[in-house]
Structure formats: C-alpha cells, structure tokens
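User: Hey, my collaborator sent me this sequence without any context and asked if I could get a structure. I don't really work with proteins. Can you help?
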Amino acid sequence: MTTGFSSNSCRFADYFVICGLDTESGLEPDELSGKGQLYHWLQQPKRGENFEQSPLRRTFKSKVLAHYPENVEWSPFDQDAVGMLCMPKGLAFRTQADTREPQFHSFIITREDGSRTYGFALTFYEEVTSKQICSAMQTLYHMHNAEQYDILHTPTTPRCPEDQCHLQPHPLNPHPQHTLLPTPSISRLQRFNSYDISRDTLYVSKCICLIAPMAFPQACRKVLQQLHQAVSSIQPPPLPLESYVYNILYEVPLPPAGRSLKFSGVYGPVVCQRPSTAELPLFDFPISQVFELLGVENVLQLFTCALLEIQILLYSQHYQRLMTVAESITALMFPFQWQHVYVPILPASLLHFLDAPVPYLMGLHSNGEGDRTKLELPQEANLCFVDIDNHFIELPEDLPLFPNKLEFIQEISEVLLAFGVSPEGNPLHSQGQAKHRGFRSTDMVTDRRNGNLASSALNSYLLRENETIARLQALVKRTGVSLEKCAVLSPGDEGSLSNKNLKVQCDEEELKMHQLNIQVREVFANRFTQMFADYEVFVIQPSQDKESWFSNRDQMQNFDKASFLSDQPEPYLPFLSRFLETQMFASFIDSKILCHDDEDKEHTLRVFDSRVDKIRMLNVRTPTLRTSMYQTCTNIDEAEKAIEMRVVKIDHTALHPHLLDMKIGQGRYEHGFFPRLQSDVLSTGPVSNKWAKRSAPAQWRRKDRQKQHAEHLYLDNDQREKYIQEARNLGTTIRQPKLSNLSPSVIAQTNWKFVEGLLKECRNKTKRMLVEKMGREAVELGHGEVSITGVEENTLIASLCDLLERIWSHGLQVKQGKSALWSHLLHYQESKEKTDAAPAGLGPPGKPLVEIHIQNIGEIKTDVGKARAWVRLSMEKKLLSRHLKKLLSDHELTKKLYKRYAFLRCDDEKEQFLYHLLSFNAVDYFCFTNVFTTIMIPYHVLVIPSKKLGGSMFTANPWVCVSGELAETGVLQVPKHTQEITFECQNLGKLTTVQMGHDNSGLYAKWLVEYVMVRNEITGHAYKFPCGRWLGKGVDDGSLERVLVGELVTPNSENEDRMCRTPPMQQSPGMMRRFVTISPNKLNTSQIQEGVGEAINGIVKHFHKPEKERGSLTLLLCGEYGLVWALEQVFQHGFKSPRLFKNIFIWDFLEKSQVYFESAEQREVTPEENWQTRVRHFCRFMRAINNTSRNIGKDGKFQMLVCLGARDHLLHHWIALLTDCPITVQMYEDTALIKDRSLVNSLIRVLQTLQEFNITLEASLVKGIGI
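Assistant: No problem. I've predicted the 3D structure and written it out in structure-token form, which is a compact way to encode the shape of the chain:
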C-alpha cells in the first residue's frame, strides 16, 4: 500500500543496488544473523552456536558493493537498512552439489516520519573466483573437522539439526551413497569433509535490488530477473547492462493515477498500472497466495487480530511470504491504516525488538529446522503467532468474532472458488505452480448456452475437495443463496473482457492476479462501508479552534462511541467496542476532523466517504443501516472493468533503452558474473525530461490549492501536515526501529522510549476509564458527554489487562508460562511462603496476593485467564494499586526476574504508574462479579436486631432468601442465637433484595430488625438492607415476612449510616434529600408532588439508558424515596388520625374501598363500562394479594399492589377510582391531597408516563401471586 509515498519522486525507481561479498575485506562471520542466532537470542543456548555449524552453513557479513546514483534528494540512501534487508541473513555459501535457484523478495523501509520506500531484491549465486576466500573456507573446514573429530570419539546424541538424517541426500555431501553407512560416526565425518578446494566449486550469494517509491513487485521482479538472465545466458544482451539500468532509473516514470505504463526490460516488455483516485489504493502482491497458505478461516482470524492492534508475529522461511502476508493484511484494512511498529522482515540484528511492549506486526525468518515449540518468545499473553509455512495460527485468548463471520467467509470463498483457489488453503499449492492457477471457473461456465461444462458440475468438483466447503454449502442452503451463483457473480461472464479475445497487454497470469486481488479487496472494503455507513453522524467536531484542539488532543473524545454502539446489532458489540478503542480508528477519525472539503481529504478517506455516500443513497430508509442483515459487495464488476480497460489499452509507453555515451571497452562483462557498473554514466539523469517537466505545473497547482485551503483553515499546510502526523503518532511511541547496526546506547534509547510510551498509555487509559465510569459527574466537570455500556466497560478493562501484561513482559530475563504477570505473582507467593515459614517472621503473615479463590476457580484454565481474573478481582476490591505495589516492593525478586532496562525497574515511572492505578479506587467496578457469572461464591448474612428491644427473648426460627441480578438463593434458615449465616452458592451478581421472616413459633415471636448486612466474601462488597420494622403477629402491621431492598455500602462508611451511591446504581436523589430533612414527619402537597415526580423520573431515566447500563429497578420502585414510598406519602396525606391505641394502615382504606366497589358492582350503580373494568381489575388484584400464602403485613401488601399496578400500567386508573370513592370522604380530611381534583389530575398525568415502559418485576416482589 502506498502510505506516505514521497511525492517529489516521479521516477519508477530511485536506486539500483548491488550487495554481496566484498573480496577486499574477506570473510567476516556475521554474529547476529547466524542461523543459530535466532534461537540463541530467543532461547539462549550454548555460546558459539554459529561456529558449531559446518562452515558452509554459517553466515558471513554482506556489504552494499555499489548503488546508483550516489544519492537523490527526496529519498536519501540508507546504506544500513538496505544492506540488512537485501540480505537479511548475510552471505550464504554453496557448492556445486547444492541447489542455487535465484530467490526474489521485497521489503519495506519506513522512515522516521512514517513515509515508506520499497525494495525489491533478487538473490542468486556466483562462483567464488578469489583464491583467498576459497582457501579461507578450506581452513575453516580443517579447524571444524578437527573439533568434530574429538567429539566423534565420545558417543553423544547429535548436537545440531545438521546431524539428523535428512530425507534427501545432504547438500553438503556430493556423494550420497556414503550417507547410509551403518555407523553414524563415520557418515558424520564424511559429511564434515564436504568442501574440498581441489574437488568442489564454491559459490556465494549476491543480490541486485531496486529501491522504489511505490510497490510494483510484479514489474520489479521481471526487470531484475531479466537483468540476471542477461549475465547468466550464453548470448550477451543486445545493449550493455548500464543502458537498461539507466533506463529504469531515469527514463521510466511512475504511471500516473488511473493509467497503465509499458516499458522495456532486457528481453521483453513490462507492464504496470496504477489505480485512479476513485479506486482502492495501489496493491500489487498476490492475495491468492495468502489464502492458499493460510485458508480463509485463519486469514480472517489474523485480520481480526490486526484490526484490534494485537501483537502479530509472522513466521516463515521465505522472505517473500512474510512480506506478502503482511502487506495483504494491511491492505485489506482499508480505510484504516496500521499505526504501530511494522517490520515485515525483521533483520537478525533487531531481534531484541520482539521484546517491544507495543503493538507490532513483524515477520521472523525461520531456518526451516527450528520447531515452533523451541521458539520462546518474550511475551505471548496477547500475541497472534502465524506459522505461514505450516498453515497454522495461534491466537490470543478472548478474541471476539468478526461481525457476520460466517456470511463473510462464504462471500470470500465464492470469489476464491471462482479462481480455482481452495478456501481451506493449500500450502503445497502455493509452493509450486498451482494446478489450476490459470484456470478460472467462470471462464468455463460462461458459454453455458452451447452445452459446455455447467457450473454445478464444476462446483461439485471443487466442493468435493474439502470439508469446509461442505460446511459452507450447508450454510448457503440455510441462507437461501445457491452456489451456482458463485460462477455468475464473478464478472468473467458474457460481458467480461477476458473472453472477448481482446489483446491483453500483460500476461494472463498477472491479469488473473489483479482480478482476484480487486475482488477480494472489494469484499473486505464493503464490510467496513456497511459497518460504518453512518459513522459521520457520530464524529465529534471540536468546538475550539484547531490549535487548542491539538494541544488537548489526548483528553478529547473525537467519536461518540456509546451512541454508535447503542445502534449496533448485539453480536457486533464485542468486536466493535474493542475496535473503536484502537489507534487506527482514532487516527482515521482525526483525519476526518482535520479535512473539511473533499479536495483536502487523504486519498483513503475520500474513496471511503464516496462509497459510504453511495450506500446511503441506496438505503434511503436509514434503519436498514442498523440491521445485521448481511449485504454482499455490489461494485466488483466496476472495479474489475477499470483494471481490464487499463491492460487492454496501454496509456503510456516509456522510452526504450538505448546506447549511452560510454568509453570504448566499458560495458563489457564476464559471463556468469554480475559486474559493478560504470557509475559515471549512471550518476545523473538526462538534462531535459518531458515527463518531469509535465508534472511540475501540476505540483504547483496543488501547492496553490493547499495554500488557499490552509488560509481558510487558519493553518498553513506544513502545520496541517504536522498535525496529521502528530495525530498519528499519538499513543504510539516508536513507529519503526532504526535499521542500523545497533550499539548498546541505541538499544537503551529505544527501551527508554518504550518505557515513556507505556507510562503515557497507562495515563490515558486510566483517565479514559474514570471519565467513562463517572458518567454524569464527569460531564459536570466538563469532560464532554459520555456514558459507558457494559460491553464498553469490559473492553476497557480487557485493554488494561493487556497493558499490564505488556508492562510485565518488558525486559523479562527468563520467560515462564504465557502470562508474565501471573508468573510474577506465583514467584512472589512462593518467596513469601518461604519467608513466612522462617521462624523470625515479623508480625502476622499478610493475606496472600494471589487470591486463593482465583486458583480454585475451575472455569479458568490458563495462566493468562488467571492473571485477568486477578486484575478484575483486585479492581472490584479497590486493591489493584496496593497489590501491585506490594508485589513490586520485593526488589530482590524484581531484580532476579527483570533486566535493568525493564519498565518495572524504572523507579520513577513505576511510582507514577501505581499512582495512576490508584485513581480506580474512586469508583466501583463489578468487573469480576459480572464476568465470572457461573462460579461459586461464599456469602455472609448478618441480621442486626434493634438495640432498644434486644432480640434475646425472641423464640421463633428466622429465615432469609437473598436475590441478585443473576439468581436467588431460596430459603435459608438462620440460627436464632447468632442470627448470622455463611453459605456458598452460584454467583448472584449485584444483590438487590433480601426476603426475611420467621415461623411465628414459641412464646415470644416478635422481632424488631434494624437492618440486614450481606457480604460477598470474594469481592468484599457489602450490601445493607434497612428494615427498622417489627416482624410478628399483632405488632406493627402484623407482618411475618418482609422484602427489603438494599444498596452497596462503601467500605469506610460503616460508622456513618450513609449508603454509597455509585453511578451505575444511582437513582436521582435530586431535591428529595433536602425537604426530608426539613420536615421528616409531615410533607406538604408540593413536596409530595415533587417526591412522586422524582420517583417516576428515576424510572423513566432507567428505561432511557441502554440495557447494559441500567441499575436496579427494584431500588427505584421499593427503595428509599422510590415509587412505593412516594405513593405512601400521597395516601398518608390528610389521613384522619386514628383513635387511641389503634393503628390504621393505608391497606385498611384500600380493603374498605374494595368492599364498597364489590357491593356497588352488584348493585350496578354506575353502568359505565370503563369504570366496571377498572373496578374488576382493582378487586382482582386486592383479592389475589389478600389470599397469598405469604405472611406479608399490610405495608408489604401495599408495596406489592403498587408494584403490580406499575407493571400492568393500572396505577393511574386506580387513583382515579379511589378519588371518586365515598370511603375516601369518610377516611380523609378535606385538605387531603387525594380530595384535591387538580392535584389528583396532575398525579394521574405523571403516572401515565409509565405506560410506555415494559416493567419486569423481580421474582421476590411478587412471589405467591398468580396474576
């Protein structure tokens, strides 16, 4: 992909480079790229592994022998980087017995500013002519043989993979018949003697390379292969080599956007084309190869990891495969761009970069012998490891599914099948030439009318190949799509160019590659267009000017995530909530904010926006944007036609190579050797160049336009570029390692940048999580409107766990297990157990840091899972910072486990980090309770009877039943003497109610309960359920059981009886608190109205929140100042004071009214039908509650009636009935609220607002009622 391509260059290639053996400096062993070195760094085996290898298998330093021209201003030549990447493993030696096929690979150099240059290298072997080098090799062999001879006399197991039997004759042994001798020792000695100066020819690798501003691997491969062919074929080429190199450097331009270009190689034409500004960006690597190597399923998993910015390590023995997979995955991300470390080919000298605690996408070369199990990587807790050659991928835990994954796989598979590529993948396929590589099913199907092979026959042939397709077919049948369409869908049909015998200017193979590429890319791009069709609506435009927006960029929210997610189908949420947190999404939205009009947009953004507009025009009814209906890609034909048009009619043809002005005798060369070229003729280009001139005015025009636009924005263009660049770098410390031979100081500096980056990331994460969690309070503090959903909270906590794992993996000495944090906790626990066991322990032993609970949870199987559970539990207990501080206070242990440069050994940063984590104690998280819903948890219940009337005389047997958001316990008997009980049951979730009562046995069965406390013994959360009432016959309201509603108590407030009201459970106390304190006994009518308003308001707000964010509805109905309390105030206002010693309850009034209504109904006083229906409902509910087997008192019955009335939307009808009832006249004073018509009408209007909500009651509130 062409991100950040340097616009000054309009030449096809900037440099031509030759690398290889410098005969003057001789053989220098390459310590770092030694074959054993990868394992040496990752496993730390015996020293000197490189020297144990036979000399032909060792690696030696390669040099850049020459590059032409010396330098170009827009792209300075980076000698170190080019040298490392042209021959990442250094020089390789071979003899005539070995295979010496030329190998092509491409690479990428990313500069400090994020712009990229591409390299294309062809490595081949040349005979070594230098006598010194040959004799040096012979000497190395003599030394090596002497060492090995000593070893042979001590029988040991083979020490290096070399020594194990290979399937084919060993390349170092020109006489295979000797390899199968009976005794291994002799055969080994034979093999060590395998280079003999008198008998063998020595070959060494050499590399020619093009450095270009844009990636055209197919064209560059042809150019290099033809140049190599020129020196290796018997016939000399028509012109000197300099003519061809000069031509490619100076006379071949880059094809303009939307055009194709043809130029001449040594033996044949080369065609390349570039997409127009309205098409997907340039991409010229074969995507089919990625699917053949990995299979659709694996590719999609890898793609998901890349989108979520998980560390990705590709592993293969072919450099080109590493590059193809990396470039394909990043290209398929369109319109998003990978923002972090990107090194598709990691040179051996940069292996320490695998330790980087940041997201990365890197490619690691395997030597083909090393087994994956031997590869100990510094951190694997959040790593996606892709073994390309073995069709295998290792994923991190908890990877969410990509939205509509099955349908997506189906759509991709149809495209692949149409080109004869198996969706299962076929690794062998991609090594040789494909069986049906050139064949495309649609070409056979097109001529269906003439009785040629029909699609179904072909498909069944392709489908028999493997099971996945069978699975897909089953899926397809269910979804109602016929696989016959797979042929029809592809634009190879009657109208397509590929069958019209039009002269295509590039070879068939290449056209097929382009067609498959564009089809697959369009399918992927269409996913994002559908998913983010209405993203613009949610972009938060900054209110202040760009300068201040930029300086506060860290704190600003640029996208309304909560609203966006609340619109998405449920199954998308796990993936989307994590994706919206990534750097790539943030920078995509940043560039959207910084670019106002179309002219100014980055290419990718412009293309994406135009596609989104198209979709929105098609879907006039926006609701279709919200559905999870899968919509397949529709613009494949159009995209494919554009490519075919360019190949049929070539737009530009470059100048042909020609003789240069060279001295006689120059330009000769020796057969079989690629020479150094004449630098004088290659140092400068032609004086006048028509295409260089032609593009100049366009550049000026662009400059003018940018200038005008910048004035309009009050920013000059450089500033804007700087801003966009800075926005990209936000949150990423290092985009790219510096490719140079690294000194310890450079490595130290790199690590220091990582440490700073980790701290910054920790600061941003904690801030983000707090702002989200505190919700409204934060908004009042001016942090912008935000609210958090359950999914989003989970995402943020998961990303915190990931950050902690990265911090704990940075600078590890020795890796144990997949989770560095968990292994540190276990080490700590072990060392504490040892010191506690020592007799001179100071004070009592502290609680173990590693909660025994976590180790006992059977559901969590892996170390990474245990570490995450531990972090969640510590956060819920508000102990994360304290625990980690304690863990890191064992300095000896930290020193033993970590290198000096590790984050955990930088004291200041570590302190700041713990300080940031401390801020989580300000809010309540339920991140453990809500996630581990199936585990067993011990609870402790304590009943506190009133101190005034001690419960010591109490004779009955009490019971409790505890309910939570997830489950309830059933009846638990409580011992009457202790009045407390501990029990274990499946996680109840956040606790909501306690039902309690007694069996009324014994002489004194009256019980005055102050409150009940219930404590979750794992998380330490304690809930208080206030009661303050009697339970007993003939006392209070005669109730033997009550339903208590409780709230979470803050740990420090047991002394003051104040509840902790954290936002997730918060009802709106508003004004209520104030007037209750003014007159606790009697409220006036306006206060009562306000109370009802507040209670209803709380319920309305509850339903307006996304489902995941809602607190407890029970609390809003029956809790302090809830709906039941508010209506109680309504009915108590103006209630005639009862005669002495006799309490009258609201329930008494309701029962009398019921009697009146029933008799009125029999007398049929009011024939109005509406009235009768209401009366019937009212009486039915009253009877049902009175007939319940439960011993709830009169107040309990009133509470039940209000809850049922709210559920069935009948409350306002009942209030109207009771107002007109003659019983009201008898039992209420004239000033009573219920007798005031206007007040009652406003009360009815307020209650009517509940009609639109579907109120579901907790089982404990309506137990025993069958309505």
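In plain terms: The mean pLDDT is 75. You can pass these tokens on to your collaborator as they are.
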